[in-house]
Design brief:
CATH superfamily of the largest domain: HAD superfamily/HAD-like
Strand content: 5-15%
Strand order of the largest sheet: 3-2-1-4-5-6
Radius of gyration: 17 Å
Structural class: alpha/beta
């Protein structure tokens, strides 16, 4: 038992990894491939954090189910195979995660990424061994539904009162609230500080180093 927390669950995109530019470019490329108007970077940033199906439905509500399926397929081609936009971890993430694990915290990931996408970046960043559990949007209902956190809590046996969700979007904070766990926001991702605080974040921090200091 470590302080008031045992389990820290992290969102991935916008919280641990700076993937915003690649996600925006791949949505734009998918729209171009299917002859659909580009919704623009601002609108695309708003849906980062949702599962891909939910994100496409939110961005393109007027399109048919078949057209949305085409968009999803083209997005995956660009994201997994064609687009080479860099996706670095944010400064201090490796050192911070390692330090938290060394101090006895259990670490997990709840992400809007697919399992294939998360497995790829876990291996590319060498972080897989740091996490005791991970849950993806193609394995559970999309944020803000609490299923991802519920599944992680069930897998780890941890208590809700001793769990923290860390994320950069209102979807993360809403999921935390819906699951009955505390939420901590970061300001360097895609949603604004005031939005995160308005959706229940205990605080909104400006760096990953600050997240680790807050936990400690």
């Amino acid at each position: 038992m470590t302080g008031a927390l045992d389990l820290i669950v992290f969102d991935w995109d916008g919280t641990l990894m700076d993937s915003e530019a690649k996600i925006v470019r791949c949505v734009q490329a998918a729209a171009a491939d299917t002859g659909i108007a580009d919704p623009g970077p601002a609108a695309i940033r708003r849906i980062i954090g949702l599962g891909l199906s939910e994100a496409i439905a939110t961005l393109f509500p007027e399109e048919s189910s078949a057209r949305r399926t085409q968009l999803i397929e083209r997005y995956r081609v660009h994201f997994l195979e064609r687009d080479d936009t860099a996706m670095p971890l944010f400064p201090g993430v490796i050192e911070g995660l390692t330090g938290l694990a060394d101090r006895g915290y259990l670490l997990a990931v709840a992400t809007g990424k697919s399992r294939r996408g998360l497995d790829r970046v876990l291996d590319e960043t060498g972080t897989r061994a740091l996490f005791v559990a991970t849950r993806c949007a193609d394995e559970a209902l999309s944020k803000p539904h609490p299923q991802m956190l519920d599944d992680i809590l069930g897998a780890t046996g941890m208590q809700r009162a001793r769990t923290l969700m860390v994320g950069d979007t209102v979807y993360d904070m809403q999921m935390a609230h819906n699951a009955g766990v505390a939420g901590l926001g970061v300001s360097y991702g895609v949603h604004a500080r005031d939005e995160l605080l308005a959706n229940g974040a205990l605080a909104c921090l400006d760096s990953f180093e600050a997240v680790c200091a807050w936990v400690a």
